[in-house]
Amino acid sequence: MTPELERRATAGVLARGRTLYGHAAIFGQETRIGTFTERIAPGAFAKSLASGRDILALLDHRPDALLGRTKTGTLTLREDDRGLHFELQLPDTQAARDVVSLAERGDLGGMSFGFV
Predict the structure, then answer these.
(1) Most buried among 64, 72, 84, 98, by the most CB within 10 A?
(2) Rounded CA gap, 55 and 52, in Å?
(3) What is the pLDDT of residues 41-52, one digit of tens each?
(4) How do beta strands 66-69 and 6-10 pair?
């Protein structure tokens, strides 16, 4: 049985041309989930980042809306003192053009990450 995908969201996506950047996760920030509180600790992503696995950037977690991936270098991820930092070079697709337009207007509310 495949574990269900969990999702967590954060705010603060910035745009520079066709590049989005910011933090996909913030360390130490409390999130209330039902009856418990979750907090992401520094180092939480270290094993995944070191594994060399291909990590995808998807629009709204949709596999048909690929925006970038670590394997090609269009998505870069690293842990810093604040959390999981990302930089995403957007492709010339309709989905990415929509994202750029929203980012330029300041309408992007943030981003989220999925995990099992």
Answers:
(1) 84
(2) 9
(3) 999 999 999 999
(4) unpaired
